[in-house]
Design a protein that fits this description.
2 domains, single chain, 190 residues, 8 strands, mainly beta, binds zinc ion, 26% strand, 4-stranded antiparallel beta sheet, rod-shaped
């Protein structure tokens, strides 16, 4: 390749004329032509050389490896301390756990024995609802229904549609806790 110098002429691809034309060298970096002016349109632009040469800068020089490492920001919330069910029941008097009945009243941290779900721990009390954490699930049940039935009878009539909550495909809404409890109390009428 002939030696070029600033002010000399070189054939280069003009981005405006879209042709390879004679250009005047405006700037050089080392032995490489950096910037030229088209002798035809007088436009300044970076030197591109003739089309087909390998002199042009490669536009696809973005690093690819930075992609995988930038998406690892969603694993930060796995730090939650999970207390196992056995640990929650540690120190509790499981042997004397009362049988669950919607007529009894429960308190947080109390251990209750449920005929279906087994040993459960009261984790929350909200009015006449009580959250019970069992080994496999957490259930919201009723409690404190032992008083005189001022408004509701102890056994809700089956025409209310509150029975059989499990065989309805109601995925969108959570099943009413009342229905669960009334189903249990039906087997309790000994
Ligand atoms: Zn030009």
């Amino acid at each position: 390749m002939a030696t070029h110098k600033v002010g000399g002429e070189v054939d280069a691809y003009c981005t405006r004329c879209k042709l390879t034309l004679a250009h005047t060298i405006l700037a050089m970096v080392g032995t490489k032509i950096a910037r030229v002016r088209c002798n035809t349109c007088n436009g300044d632009h970076a030197y591109r050389g003739a089309p087909g040469t390998t002199d042009r800068p490669t536009p696809s020089s973005t690093p690819r490896a930075s992609r995988a490492s930038s998406s690892g920001s969603s694993s930060a919330k796995a730090e939650k301390v999970i207390i196992s069910f056995e640990e929650q029941l540690a120190g509790k008097d499981i042997a004397n756990a009362p049988k669950y009945s919607p007529k009894d009243t429960y308190q947080v941290d109390q251990v209750v024995s449920h005929p279906t779900f087994g040993i459960g721990l009261v984790t929350a009390v909200r009015g006449d609802k009580v959250d019970l954490t069992f080994r496999t699930d957490t259930k919201t049940l009723v409690h404190g229904r032992g008083g005189p039935p001022a408004e509701k009878p102890a056994f809700s009539p089956p025409t209310r549609g509150a029975t059989g909550p499990a065989d309805k495909p109601m995925a969108a809404e959570p099943p009413p806790a009342d229905a669960e409890a009334s189903g249990e109390s039906a087997t309790n009428g000994d």
